[in-house]
Amino acid sequence: MPAPPLDATLLPRPTKARTRSGQFTFTADTRVRVGEGAEDAARLLRTLLAPATGLPLHPADDGAVVLALDPDLTGLGTEGYGLTVGPHSVLLRAARLTGLLRGVQTIRQLLPVQALARAPGRGVRWTLPCAEITDVPRHPWRGAMLDVARHFQPVEYLRRYVDLLALHKINVFHLHLTDDQGWRMPVTAYPKLTEIGGHRTRSMTGPTGDVYDGTAHGGAYTRAELAGLVEYASALGVTVVPEIEMPGHVRAALAAYPRLGNAPDRALEVWTRWGVCDTVLGVHDEVLDFCRTVLEEVMELFPSPYLHVGGDECPLTEWERSPLARARIAAEGLHGPADLHRWFLARIGDFLVRNGRRPVGWAETGTELPDGFTVMAWRDPAHALAAARRGHDVINAHHRATYLDHPQSADPREPPGQPGAVVALRDVHGHDPVPAGATSDVAARVLGTQAQLWTEFAATPERLEYLTYPRLCALADRGWSGPTEWGDFRSRLDLHTARLDALEVRRHP
Ligand code: ACM
Fold first, then answer.
1. What number does the ligand 1 atom closest to the CA of 376 have?
2. What's the pLDDT at 8?
3. Number of helical (H) and strand (E) elements in the chain, helices listed first
4. Looking at residue 508, what is its pLDDT?
5. Where are the domains of the chain?
6. Is 179 annotated as catalytic?
7. What pLDDT does residue 4 have?
8. Percent of the chain with pLDDT over 90
9. Which of 147, 179, 243, 362 to mutate to test ligand 1, by most ligand atoms within 8 A of the CB atom?
10. Alpha carbon distance 292, 282 (integer Å)
11. SS3 of 497, please?
12. CB of 35 within 8 A of CB of 68?
């Protein structure tokens, strides 16, 4: 039986792929010619293939496998690559190192599926089908957010999560580090953020009601762990974008430092409920200094050009009552508490821009974030459109298509998830990051799309993987390849499932 055409096996689907007759076979003698600047790609190829194949892939000037950077290949952009496999040679070329890293993942997918296993594949011939591939992503932002605030995950598991993102050519790992229920990033200037804010006494068992599990939950990363994660992800071509929530979703910080809130003498506990908490940051000078100090430490650890500062779900009730907030409104000539939200984020955004970074925020309406913010639109595609029309760069993270904490079917056997809509595989696959009605200049401001995994109801790696896969495969395909036929995606996913199984991904059936 002839092998299926290449583009029918790869996930995400490559832009252009032609299958040729014949195969290239890797052996213990296969050498790699590593062009200048391609060393990290050679290392990744070796590291990824070693456990299952045992191939040494030593470097040599006359190697049959060639990894080459050519800055003149401008049509390939930052992440595109060209791959030519002949019976006696493999040539992987890109304009930038990141493109080579994407191509390495394609080589991995083209090999027999045993190449992805943890254990050595004995008696397997490590062949690649002869082929010519040119592959360039449709969208520059293909992200996955993991909430480690609601349920902490050890850094070893985050590395595994990043490994799987890279296989799917997802290029942003958005790490939601702080929220009402936990603060996970150590801040030298404010040690109580993790000492106190990193622990809660119990957790609500369901989405509503007053029933708790009676189990304490806590955890925080060390600076070395976070720096190590950034480096690990970078070697896979994945950028870690940290998120520090403000001015809402800060109850854990206020439990540690009540004077940063709107009632300095009040003792607060790290929140044990789910939902939107009405305790928010104050707007006095000390709070802005606090945010800037925290973000300075964030910038030391995370080289990402983008830093996420939340901005979502900030109830105004405390500011309406606070004399300090009313004084700030008067002093700044603002129209009221709603204006304070934009004023606050503008101060923070300016600070990040002055430091050479780009602020990202969640959109509540698409028009409320200050200029210069990249907008993550989650509530409604109309917000993505409104923000892009206003001149913002936009990431379309519509919850009905990208929130992986929602159950993936209506089957009553699904584990309890976020109440509300089912987000089925087909919903994710059908999600066009470019909102309907966008003109070409507006569409050009849509950077891409991103999956969200909030973890109120997902505490373990098993559950995280169950919720993430295979839905993230659909998001990756859409973000990299643009629209693909549902039937085509499904048949590629069937083949791809064998790869997930080789990697022991605890996926949804
Ligand atoms: C969000 O889901 N609150 C961004």
1. 4
2. 83
3. 17, 18
4. 95
5. 6-135, 141-502
6. yes
7. 67
8. 95
9. 362
10. 14
11. helix
12. yes
What phi and psi values does residue 73 have, to the nearest 5 degrees? -80, 60
Cβ of 362 closer than 6 Å to ligand 1, yes or no, is yes
Angle at 249 between CA 246 and CA 254, to 5 degrees: 85
From 135, 179, 245, 393, active-site residue: 179
Q: Cα–Cα–Cα angle for 76, 79, 82, nearest 5°?
A: 50
Given a cut of 90, whether residue 435 has pLDDT beyond it is: yes
Taking only the tens place, the pLDDT of each residue in 132-168 is 999 999 999 999 999 999 999 999 999 999 999 999 9
Give me the pLDDT at residue 434, please. Answer: 97
On the question of pLDDT at 2 being above 80, the answer is no
Q: Is 195 a catalytic residue?
A: no
C-alpha distances (whole Å) from 373 to each of 88, 105, 357, 363, 453 are 50, 32, 10, 10, 22
Is 6-135's fold the same as 141-502's? no
pLDDT single digits (tens) 442-470: 999 999 999 999 999 999 999 999 999 99
How many Å apart are CA 273 and CA 256, to the nearest integer? Answer: 17
Is residue 115 within 8 Å of 455, Cβ to Cβ?
A: no
Ligand 1 atom nearest 452 alpha carbon = 2
**3-class DSSP state for residue 67?**
strand
CB atoms within 10 A of CB 349: 25
**Residue 290 three-state SS:** helix
Q: pLDDT (tens digit, 9 = 90+) per residue, 96-120?
A: 999 999 999 999 999 999 999 999 9
Residues in the chain: 509
Q: Most distant CA pair in the chain: distance in Å?
A: 77
Distance from residue 454's CA to the centre of ligand 1 (Å): 9
Q: Whose CA is nearest to atom 2 of ligand 1?
A: 378
Predicted confidence at residue 264, as pLDDT, reads 84
Superfamily of domain 141-502: Glycosidases (3.20.20.80)
What is the CATH architecture assignment of 6-135? 2-Layer Sandwich (3.30)
Q: Which two tokens stand for residue 290?
A: 């606090």
pLDDT value of position 3 = 64
Paired strand residues for 446: 394
**pTM reported for the whole predicted model:** 0.98
**Which one of the listed residues 163, 225, 312, 313 is annotated catalytic?**
313
